[in-house]
Amino acid sequence: MLIKDLSLGIVSSILLVICVLVGVAFLTLLERKVLGYIQIRKGPNKVGIWGIPQPFADAIKLFTKEQTYPVVSNYTPYYISPIFSLFLALIVWMIFPMWVGLHNFNLGALFFLSCTSMGVYTVMMAGWASNSNYALLGGLRAVAQTISYEVSLALILLSFVFLVQSYNILDFTRGQEGLWFVVLTLPLCIMWFASCLAETNRTPFDFAEGESELVSGFNVEYSSGGFALIFMAEYASILFMSMLFVILFLGSNIYNIFFYIKLVFLAFMFIWVRGTLPRFRYDKLMFLAWKSYLPVALNFLIFFSGGLVLTM
User: What is the pTM of this model?
Assistant: First the structure.
């Protein structure tokens, strides 16, 4: 029985990873199409019908190109960091709230925070090991930004932990059967979405990849396979953050088609923001995290903890 359960868990995990990677491929296509129409042009439309095989063409191109690395780089961390980055972006999907089988464990919220905190090290390693001033500056910016917004993410998540009195992601879904949390906590919803943009280094918080001043940020020295792995990790994180947003605020059963419609809409919102907003100023980014989001998140946390004490 143990071998059967173990093999079922492994096969389920592999299927989940494959589905996430296919989702990542088509999210890149969606982004290029949406950005094309935002800029009043067509997106990729030459490869196959409506450009649908374009993501696979991109993957084949990137992984068959020659892998180069700077002579003065620190080779081992330079080589490992993109692999570790994608590994973290995929392993965090273990908390996907399956009602039966797979990995349903009681500390899913803590596991999510642990995995996102580890993501900082991959960016830092990639920026430092490249031995390039641009890469190092991009890495330092990304680390400062990610650590700052992790604080607000953790506090917002803790507010909902007090609300549902559990770290299990399944309980967040059960707790919203009558009323979605977005109705109760609209300010937290907006703050969470902005923090997700900052956490995944997306516009208007893409300081780690500031093309106008840092060429391409921490991944400037990466080409072919290494660049593709960093790219895939970023988009897997976007899909995961969209999924977590839906579970926290727009509670839905994962066996319901509306769950996936909401998830795709949230991923579209990430792209929409990229096509609409200019980049923030760096000091404004830090001011937003520490002077605006932190006090509001703390106030909500105290409010929910007070409510918890009153109901006990």
Answer: 0.91
